[in-house]
Amino acid sequence: xxxxxxxxxxxxxxxxxxxxxxxxxxxxxxxxxxxxxxxxxxxxxxxxxxxxxxxxxxxxxxxxxxxxxxxxxxxxxxxxxxxxxxxxxxxxxxxxxxxxxxxxxxxxxxxxxxxxxxxxxxxxxxxxxxxxxxxxxxxxxxxxxxxxxxxxxxxxxxxxxxxxxxxxxxxxxxxxxxxxxxxxxxxxxxxxxxxxxxxxxxxxxxxxxxxxxxxxxxxxxxxxxxxxxxxxxxxxxxxxxxxxxxxxxxxxxxxxxxxxxxxxxxxxxxxxxxxxxxxxxxxxxxxxxxxxxxxxxxxxxxxxxxxxxxxxxxxxxxxxxxxxxxxxxxxxxxxxxxxxxxxxxxxxxxxxxxxxxxxxxxxxxxxxxxxxxxxxxxxxxxxxxxxxxxxxxxxxxxxxxxxxxxxxxxxxxxxxxxxxxxxxxxxxxxxxxxxxxxxxxxxxxxxxxxxxxxxxxxxxxxxxxxxxxxxxxxxxxxxxxxxxxxxxxxxxxxxxxx
Length: 498
Ligand SMILES: *[C@@H]1O[C@H](CO)[C@@H](O)[C@H](O)[C@H]1NC(C)=O
Ligand SMILES: *[C@@H]1O[C@H](CO)[C@@H](O)[C@H](O)[C@H]1NC(C)=O
Ligand SMILES: *[C@@H]1O[C@H](CO)[C@@H](O)[C@H](O)[C@H]1NC(C)=O
Ligand SMILES: *[C@@H]1O[C@H](CO)[C@@H](O)[C@H](O)[C@H]1NC(C)=O
Ligand SMILES: *[C@@H]1O[C@H](CO)[C@@H](O)[C@H](O)[C@H]1NC(C)=O
Ligand SMILES: *[C@@H]1O[C@H](CO)[C@@H](O)[C@H](O)[C@H]1NC(C)=O
What we know:
There is one protein chain. The chain has 14 helices and 19 strands. The model is unreliable at about 1-30 (pLDDT under 50). It has two domains: about 35-365 and about 475-490, Alkaline Phosphatase, subunit A (3-Layer(aba) Sandwich), CATH 3.40.720; about 385-470, Arylsulfatase, C-terminal domain. The chain is globular and about 60 Å long. It is α/β, with parallel strands linked by helices and about 500 residues long. One 2-acetamido-2-deoxy-beta-D-glucopyranose binds near residues 111, 113, 114 and 472. This is Arylsulfatase I-like. Its cofactor is Ca(2+). InterPro entries: Alkaline_phosphatase_core_sf, ARSB, Sulfatase_N.
């Protein structure tokens, strides 16, 4: 009896150990959702199929319709400030990257005392991948993706480059991890990133959750697209708008390839996919982005520069298949993703955890945000509190309501006329101005309420001043063209000069 008992007890103990280790596997690893975070570069409000039927984005449209379209997802007006906010969870003006974008030869980067979201995802067991554009500094290795939380990196450091030969200002900017990749001359970058993402997905260790950050080069200028996509847009007679539209469709196909890989390797059912632009479309003739019916463009504090297209998709979402009108800001991704990973962001952070808003459609915890504060000329700042938006100083150009061009030459007419007429009838900014809009009632910013509602102006100004106390002066060291010269590094833009 005694022996039998002991034996059954040890059997039981053994069974418990087995069970415990099984549940450990279930809890510790693969059940956390995979996160695929796609950023389109310079994609305007009117540059995606679900907002504009002249653009073919069947894959993105389907994902958006099945998921949750984010109708009030705010971003910063340009690349570096937006990416700094996304990566750090802080407003760009608290990071020191609020003024314009980093130049090739600028010895600066996203300050090293910020712990970036991929670092935090890694701490929570994620294997982290980045493919595409960095644009947060590279003058020393410590600033670059593989030193800042990405286990794998395939992409480029600067703002923009040729889509086929991957050069910018004459020299190559393309890396696989730390190594320069000379082998992709002639391959359109959108295909290149889709192919590399497929490779990463195929070799991903499935007992760890995946965090894939995929900031495409698309659809930033230089505007270039493969012929087969250009052929889909013969009905658009403005050459640059045709190319831009073709670039968007090429990116849509790349997303399709990435999703097919996630399905094939059985990650898709547990993937949260985020899609967002980094800023509004550059609504100028050379770039041909478009934000209609929103006012303004990339580079501006108007809604056209800052109200970003975006959506989330995932089978785990409790409420989906609708348009969500709750307010969110690019800084919110950090605490939200960290929450999904099982962590919690510092309370000082500007970003808020909006998971219940995305997942269940609950009211957003976000009631206000700073569009940007730029203390360097052209100085300008904007804040949103509830339904109201206050702009002080320079909101930026291009201004006005710019329709998508359809025939060559029409830009040259639309752009100056639009600004000119607007200035004459007083709708447009004269540079140093105070604007107050009710964005809910007037999302296209046509009705300046500043004179009618001085108390509201005072209230928002006071809040702006209060938040401005935390401003870190913009980090803008003098460019170092000698130090950064790629000829010193075998002909590729490289770290090692600051
Ligand atoms: C999205 O936002 C715009 C601008 O505020 C609004 O006109 C539109 O009705 C919203 N879409 C939906 C489906 O709620
Ligand atoms: C990083 O350093 C800057 C400048 O000293 C400071 O303003 C900021 O609060 C620091 N950020 C963090 C997250 O420690
Ligand atoms: C890369 O392509 C651009 C066209 O966008 C061209 O001007 C440049 O000379 C090419 N550079 C190299 C090194 O291939
Ligand atoms: C790419 O190939 C073209 C044509 O073969 C060549 O002229 C150019 O220098 C190459 N560019 C790079 C960056 O390798
Ligand atoms: C996959 O990840 C698990 C958990 O981190 C680890 O134990 C295992 O060794 C990894 N397998 C391979 C092939 O790297
Ligand atoms: C605009 O405002 C800024 C900051 O208040 C001031 O320094 C500048 O002189 C003003 N410019 C004009 C043209 O009024």
